Description:
By secondary structure, the protein is of the alpha+beta class.
Amino acid sequence: xxxxxxxxxxxxxxxxxxxxxxxxxxxxxxxxxxxxxxxxxxxxxxxxxxxxxxxxxxxxxxxxxxxxxxxxxxxxxxxxxxxxxxxxxxxxxxxxxxxxxxxxxxxxxxxxxxxxxxxxxxxxxxxx
Length: 128
């Protein structure tokens, strides 16, 4: 709605906010697709990952990036999907990504601007 330049600036601000809150050297923030990010947290517990995700979500709210015409609110928000499985040797990475994506879809269908987390079986365990 605001054009490519404004969209790119919004994504930069979100990436900066995510990167500023990632503390461990093994953690990674990466852009994944057009307007999605992946945050990889090796060895993180479900509770820790969920807490970090919520801090990321709240940090984006606090940026108050204008989002005119949004059905969620006047500012840009993020919906977050988490999967905290410990992959088996040889397990395809796309299965983990698919589980996190399912949690993201759940967050979006439950009203957006929220965090959803799945277990290794893909069942919701927490919702905020």
